[in-house]
Amino acid sequence: MDLYPTEAKENEEYSNAKWDERWEPSDLWRIRPDHTSSRADLDGMWFPPDRKVTDWESFDRNVQRLFTSLAADMPVLHPHATSIIWVIVSADEQILAAQGWFEATRSRVETKNGDELEFRDFPPGPAAAEEIVKLTQAVVRTVAETPDGLRYYAFAPSTPQALMDFRLGLADSVNR
After folding, report:
1. CB-based contact 31:164 (threshold 8 Å)
2. Most buried in the list 12, 61, 75, 84, measured by CB within 10 Å?
3. Which residue from 18, 63, 15 is spatially nearest to 167, judged by alpha carbons?
4. pTM value?
């Protein structure tokens, strides 16, 4: 986890997003610990765009970076970030590819095996993220020919937390 002065960091991110074709946001995910508190701190805040993935290589890179970050950061950020649930489905939302969650004490991935849903629980940490990444990368390719054929949604189920960003690079199934 890195801490930077907000204004300087936002100015740098904005400039890089505008002028660098290879730029990627430094924040893979963001959570607001208490969405019921005053939102004055968000007034005027710049939220970087999410670059959509164009191929399996860029999808694999995003999944690897995002899930590794979640597995490492959730134990450290507890109780300010307690759980993040994610789901990846086919673009028509008829076929579940994978779903799971990251928490301070464990992580889970659920994948379809025929008609059965397989549950795999892992302890927190990078080894768990690596397994979840491998399982997710394999199963999404059985649901879609390209990442364009996938959608996702993610959320923080614990009140009063709110998930603000979850950068898989896929279209959000809620905000297409």
Report:
1. yes
2. 84
3. 63
4. 0.84
- Give, to the nearest 10 degrees, the angle between helix 126-140 and helix 56-77: 150
Rounded-to-integer distance, Cα 101 and Cα 85, Å: 4
* Nearest-10 Cα torsion for 72, 160, 163, 110: 70
41 secondary structure, DSSP code: G
Identify the pLDDT of residue 50: 74
pLDDT at position 4 is 75
In angstroms, the CA 31 to CA 102 distance is 13
pLDDT at 106: 95
Average pLDDT score over residue span 75-97: 92
Percent with pLDDT over 70 in the chain: 87
**Contact criterion met (CB below 8 Å) for 59 and 170:** yes
DSSP assignment, residue 53? P
Q: What are phi and psi of 94, to 5 degrees?
A: -95, -20
